[in-house]
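Before our next group meeting I need something from you. Please put the record directly below this note.
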Amino acid sequence: MAKEEPYDRWHKARPAKDETECPEHPGLVPSADHGCEQRWQARWRDKDGRQRSRNFPKNRKKAALAFQRSQRAAVEEGRDPFPHRARSNTSTTPTIADYVETFLSRHEGRSGTVDSYGYRLRGHVVPALGSLAVGNVKRGDYRDFLAALKNQGMPDTTRSGVKKALSVMLSMAVEDGHLEGNPVSGIRLPKGTGRGVRLTWEHVVALADEIVPRYQLLVWYGSLQALRSMEATGVRRTDMEAVSGKQLVEEQRQRGRAAPLKTEASRAPLAVGAFLWEEYQAHLARWRAPLSPAALRRRERRGIAPVPVEYSDLVTVTRYGTPVWEGTLCREFQLAKQRARARGIKVPEDATFRDLRHFADAVLVASGLEPRKVQARMRHGRIAETMDTYGYLVWEVDWENAPASFEELYGITPPPGLPKAALLPRSKRVQRRTGAAVRR
């Protein structure tokens, strides 16, 4: 009995005797499709005896064989082979623009994930392909679309994000019967090298000086605790005070509302250094002290609504007593960056609040801290993410510009081999920061 194999589209199954052999594969005769990406073809016959097929990439022979066997077994058992279904009538097949909205309304992921997918699909996919029916866009069309994004100057990491959102959406279209298979699955894009923004202690201290004082603590949460922007704005007093010397990370704020963290690994207790604790206490004394009767009367005269009780536990709030939204924090961060650059501090122009988290990872890795401890601080599910994702950011740390010693900043016993500047306590450091004007 002949061994079962998927059909090889690169070579003829019944070549003529006088045909030339394939130079790459002796003993075989090349077909007109030789060299195409989809080399292997799974074939089976449905219950009516009609032949069906599905193509697989050149490096997926085993997958093609397994699929072929599963389809044939389904027919023998009287089941409907998947993913073959009768094609929907083109007139009833939704356009990509319409299906994007269907996909976003039905996706059950975190709200942040849905927002991210919506931004990528509405901003990039819909303008280019939105008017076409879902079933009429071929694999080559998606390749051309992704290539066009690269020609427009889009970084590879951003293109990968667009492709991921598109692939997840098309997988749902397969489940809904609009497609027989995901045409984006298997398309490979170059791995991005990262943005390469490198912050230093001089940059971080300048940003903390120049951002409005009400939001200064958020800069320290980002650079010392490696908190994401909405994790920083969601810190509560109970998170800081429930366990002595620790900060609990249990939730974040999205659009002002409490929301789950990005991953389960994001939930963790973090050591709090003396520097951050002092900044926290000063912040509470200045911005979260109970309002005096006169201040309450002024708010009432100005028509400012009373501070909701539900926000009373938040550490950082706006001047109206409400949670800080991401857009507000991003805007204030950009303004602080501009003011720092005006002072002569060359903060990278494309730096964002997210880069404070990258800065924390780079400092800890460069300081020689054990990788597992760095992973715990960054709250990554896998150590490879800690070392690989941010590994390119490691550089020599300018400890002489740090606001305090390593232990005071991170609440961790300093690893061996640190320079003397990293061990110098805050009380003995020369104050190098220029006085920043107090802004309200």
